[in-house]
Specification:
By secondary structure, the chain is an all-alpha fold. The protein has a domain at about 55-95. The chain is about 50% helix and about 0% strand. It has helices at about 5-15, 20-25, 30-40, 60-65, 75-85, 115-130. The radius of gyration is 18 Å and the shape is globular. It starts with a helix and ends with a helix.
Length: about 130
């Protein structure tokens, strides 16, 4: 299961519509359906969720968690101090591995530096080696 599928799922719950969610996350409806199938394969039923609070931004999510507001999907790196201090507890779900997409971005009007080019080359080679 990846974070994009979870993002799509949350948008469907929020908008209560597959087609509006697809439009909101810039995907086709069949792609959205595929994400939902992936979540269903992990026993996540959109109808069973009752969303009572939505927050954005790592700091807002951290504070909501520490206040006992529920469960969140957030980068471990963003909350490692809270885990260490036992303010929050990470949950492991057997058989579920959340993966996340990262994007490389660059300034639209500037050429890449030699270091930036080397880093991009390194990532491309690592991706090729990983299959």
């Amino acid at each position: 299961m990846d974070l994009r599928a979870l993002e799509v799922f949350c948008k469907i719950v929020e908008l209560r519509s597959f087609s509006r969610a697809a439009e909101a996350v810039f995907l086709t409806q069949p792609t959205v359906s595929g994400h939902i199938k992936a979540l269903a394969d992990h026993a996540v039923d959109p109808a069973s969720l009752r969303v009572v609070l939505e927050v954005t931004g790592n700091e807002a999510v951290r504070q909501a968690l520490k206040a006992g507001a529920g469960i969140a999907v957030i980068s471990r790196r963003a909350i490692e101090d809270d885990i260490r201090s036992r303010a929050v507890t990470p949950l492991r779900i057997q058989g579920v591995r959340l993966m996340r997409e990262f994007f490389l971005v660059t300034h639209k009007s500037r050429s890449r530096s030699p270091l930036g080019k080397a880093f991009l080359s390194f990532l491309q080679q690592a991706a090729k080696a990983a299959g």
